[in-house]
Write a structure and sequence with these properties.
This is OSJNBa0060B20.3 protein. With about 240 residues, the chain is of the alpha/beta class. It contains 9 helices and 8 strands. The protein folds into 3 domains: about 45 residues, no CATH class; about 80 residues; about 90 residues, Ribonuclease H-like superfamily/Ribonuclease H (Nucleotidyltransferase, domain 5), CATH 3.30.420.10. The protein is elongated.
């Protein structure tokens, strides 16, 4: 017979039925004496059935598993101690629940309360790492042929030379072939010129063009040019296309 079964019978005021090692029908006192002689620890028998009716003070550990009745008040204090205290460690909901179990407490909604407390913990939100669930989705660019995907960006301004102070650079993602063109300004006009006079005549229409989010690349005329020729325009981060 398990300790929990014995504890349930004792707390219910029943008489322990016949069982191996404990013959006959015995009263509560006889059962306790028998258990003491057998070396059973009574704290394990009554551990799942002990109820805390008084407020929890500064202690968290005892020999008995204490069932918390007012989980909204006392349970919150216990979760805070087991999660946000100096020895709590700010672990996740499952580890916080384990800490509560190891500290000797239980209530039916313990895991849900721990999960909600961890979700609302400001320290975890400020210092916790970004998970895959919270990270921004990545755009996958598949390059299968040479001159299929180009990345473009403006360099400069540089000291003026022949009224030009910018350089528009286009790089093929496969071969790393570089095309460059001097520009008087970083605008959509020179971006269109790069493709209509250099990229399209020499290498054909690319499948994709990758650029940053500068106004010269998200200009309607530049994007319309790529769309009309069947090239997809992919806008990357502001500084690193």
């Amino acid at each position: 017979m398990s300790w929990q079964r014995v504890g349930a019978l004792l707390l219910g005021g029943s008489v322990l039925p016949a069982c191996p090692g404990c013959p006959g029908r015995r009263g509560i006192g006889s059962v306790l004496l028998f258990m003491a002689r057998m070396g059973w620890e009574l704290c394990h028998v009554f551990r799942p059935y002990t109820v805390v009716e008084q407020p929890i003070n500064d202690f968290l550990r005892d020999d008995m598993l204490m069932t918390v009745r007012d989980s909204s008040r006392e349970g919150l204090k216990i979760i805070e101690r087991c999660h946000a205290s100096p020895y709590g460690g700010h672990y996740g909901a499952f580890r916080t629940q384990v800490n509560i179990w190891q500290s000797g407490f239980f209530w039916p909604t313990m895991y849900g309360d721990s999960k909600e407390f961890v979700r609302r913990c400001t320290s975890c939100e400020r210092q916790g790492g970004i998970t895959a669930h919270d990270a921004m989705p990545l755009t996958y660019n598949l390059q299968v042929e040479i001159f299929d995907v180009w990345g473009i960006d403006f360099m400069g301004p540089f000291p003026k030379s022949r009224n030009c102070e910018y350089i528009l650079v286009a790089v093929d993602y496969i071969s790393k072939w570089v095309e460059a063109m001097s520009c008087s300004a970083a605008d959509a006009k020179h971006g269109k010129k790069m493709f209509t006079e250099i990229i399209f005549p020499r290498f054909g229409t690319p499948r994709m063009v990758i650029s940053d989010g500068g106004s010269h690349f998200i200009d309607k005329t530049f994007r319309d040019l790529l769309r009309d020729l069947g090239a997809k325009h992919n806008v990357a981060t502001p500084y690193h296309p």
